[in-house]
Design goal:
The chain has 208 residues and is an alpha/beta fold. 28% of the residues lie in helices and 32% in strands.
Length: 208
């Protein structure tokens, strides 16, 4: 069975962004791991440019609705490790984009898929190669990186992603992850569940 790479080794794969801050006249420099919504079309065979653009817009609207600009810090819980990852994008959210992604549930899940696909590509041995059909209880099939184009069926794992615009009451990231894991159909392929919450914002990645 393919191994899912996790933990601090994975988080260290991400590119770094440098932040300058000034306090009491003293400039401090800090570096954080980074993901870029504009890179959804890179290294993810399940994404076309048009589909990646749709996911990117939905994700931007979700962050914008919670008052977060490009460069927002996302807290990622993966394999028992917690790390802040900055999320970047080009472009601005306007009224037309908000109108296009006005249906909250659809936009939130699409935005969560954008983050999940990037985290999986960067933090595991996998990347998404095919969208799953309704009824499979997952969103995407994953293949190991680098891809083997000689294989007809290249599926090595599964991905289920889900979004929460803002945690309220029992609708928490941890509870959602537990519920999604319990609903996964039995399969010989391992599964990753990625939950993204946009208010904090934070994400939790768990493996079945």
């Amino acid at each position: 069975m393919p191994r899912v790479v996790c933990g601090q080794q994975c988080l260290n794969r991400l590119p770094l962004t440098t932040t300058l801050a000034m306090e009491k006249g003293v400039v401090s420099i800090s570096q954080t791991q980074a993901i870029d919504l504009n890179s959804l079309v890179t290294g993810i065979p399940a994404m076309t440019s048009a589909y990646a653009g749709y996911f990117k817009e939905a994700c931007m609207v979700c962050f914008d609705s919670q008052g977060h600009p490009s460069g927002v810090r996302l807290s990622v819980d993966w394999g028992g490790n917690n790390e802040d990852v900055t999320v970047h994008w080009l472009g601005t959210v306007d009224d037309q984009m908000r109108a296009a992604h006005n249906e909250t549930t659809r936009a939130t899940d699409s935005g969560a898929c954008a983050i999940a696909l990037l985290l999986v590509r960067e933090l595991t041995d996998y990347t998404a190669v095919r969208q799953a059909s309704i009824g499979t209880t997952i969103d995407y099939f994953l293949a190991e990186q680098p891809l083997d184009d000689t294989l007809l069926f290249n599926h090595a794992a599964r991905l289920e992603a889900s979004g929460i615009r803002e945690e309220k009451g029992s609708n928490t990231v941890s509870a959602r992850a537990k519920r999604k894991l319990s609903r996964l159909k039995d399969d010989s392929l391992p599964a990753l569940v990625v939950i993204v919450e946009f208010a904090s914002p934070k994400s939790k990645m768990v493996q079945s």
